[in-house]
Every structure is written in C-alpha cells, then in structure tokens.
Amino acid sequence: MNLILLGAPGAGKGTQATKIADRYGIVHISTGDIFRANIKNGTEIGKLAKSYIDKGELVPDEVTCDIVKDRLTWADCTRGYLLDGFPRNLFQAQELDRFAEIDGVVNINIDHKLLLDRLCGRRVCRECGESYHVSTLGGKTVCARCGGELYQRADDNPETVASRLAVYNEQTAPLIDYYEKRGILLNVTGTEAPAEVLFEDVKAALDKLLA
Ligand code: AP5
Ligand code: MG
Ligand code: ZN
Questions:
Q1: What is the pTM assigned to this prediction?
Q2: Which residues of the chain, if any, have pLDDT below 70?
Q3: What domains are defined for the chain?
C-alpha cells in the first residue's frame, strides 16, 4: 500500500503518519523531516533547504523530487510507504506519477483558524519526532514516549506560519482536486477530533481501501 498524506501545515499529518505506519507496517517518509535532518547534519542540501524553510517557502522542486525518487528505491519501501509533505504542488505530483504508483491519498480537512495556535504551541521530540502541544504538556520538557528532549521548530512562529499557510492555499490545495478526479482521495475531518479519534476515521478509510 503506497499512500500520500495531504493537509495544511499543522493539520496533523505527522501525528497520523506515525500511527498509520505502525498499524499497517509501511514506512513513513516526511520530506520536512528529511530536510531538518540535513540541516542538523550541516549538509549542502540542508543549507539550501534552510534558506527556504526559514521563510516558509517550498524548497526547489528539482532537489525535493530527487530526494523522494531516491528514497523510494530503498529496500524498506517494498512493503509500502506513506508520503508526508510530498507532493506539495502540481509539478511534484506529476513527477511522482513518473516513478511511483499511489493507491490512496488521505486528505486531512481542518478549520484553518486552529492552525496558528497548534503550530506555535507545538513541541517536537528530538529523538523520535513525536509532536506535543504546550497546552497538554503541563510544563514537561521531555518526550512521554522516549524521554527525548522537546524543542520548538524554527518555522513555528507567526510570520513563517502565515507564509506556510499562503503557500499551502496557493500551491498544495489544488492537489485535492487532482487526486479526487483520479478517484483515490480519502477525506477525513480533523477539526473536532483528537488525534486518536481522527485515527479511527483514517483506519476506517484505509481498511476499506485494502478490502
Ligand atoms: P513539513 O515538515 O512538512 O511541515 P508542514 O507541512 O508545515 O506540516 P507540519 O509538520 O507543520 O504539520 P503536521 O500536519 O505534520 O502536524 P502535526 O502532526 O505535527 O514542511 C516544513 C517545510 O519543509 C516546508 O515549509 C517547506 O519549506 C519544506 N518542505 C517540506 N516538504 C516539501 C516539499 N515536498 N517540497 C518543497 N518544500 C518542502 O501536528 C501539529 C500540532 O497539532 C502538534 O502540536 C500536534 O500535537 C497537534 N495535533 C495534531 N493532531 C491533533 C488533533 N487531532 N487534535 C488536536 N491537536 C492535534
Ligand atoms: Mg509534519
Ligand atoms: Zn520521543
């Protein structure tokens, strides 16, 4: 099963991705995580990516597509994969069609009014990548899953979030239509649902796809 997770910044893609990967035994591939790992390791790709991510803009398509194309050749992808944060525009979607076959696209719909608070209050585990929100941490600074240190992403500030949302609306939202027309879009609504509840809907949609 090869899947794409679509949704605005802060919609809960990463949160659902961990659960989907665990449950269905497929590999979670997040282009954002790949870029952040490169930034941390000081690679050339990391330096380039940082200059775009800090402004909330997309990293150039050529670089991003090459990374994904290569990543999908790794042995762990043969059992299936879940793309989180890719494709992000029409060009990337068309490129992906040249080197991959996608079975389903999970689109997380969310009221955009919630996103600023979610993103600016987010804390992420340095070790395992789990996301938390300050409002539920009760002052804790370590990960409940693995004890890793929690940090705030550099692009989770009001200015950068505003430009990430604008980029989403202009460039990524049209992909909903793209996959809808192909008949592989699975819509779920994340607005009222806590992550565990939303995952029930995601599971129902994916189990139907697999049946
Ligand atoms: P990326 O890392 O993909 O970030 P994003 O798309 O902005 O999405 P986020 O990771 O911020 O949100 P999420 O949907 O994963 O939400 P999460 O589960 O963490 O990309 C970052 C940058 O990299 C881009 O801006 C771009 O520059 C570059 N990039 C990446 N891919 C690229 C590509 N293909 N092409 C070009 N450039 C690319 O949840 C958010 C918060 O909400 C957390 O606090 C969480 O605890 C909370 N939460 C989650 N679910 C729920 C729920 N159901 N109820 C209540 N709270 C919830
Ligand atoms: Mg994410
Ligand atoms: Zn952790």
A1: 0.96
A2: none
A3: 2-111+184-210 (3.40.50.300)
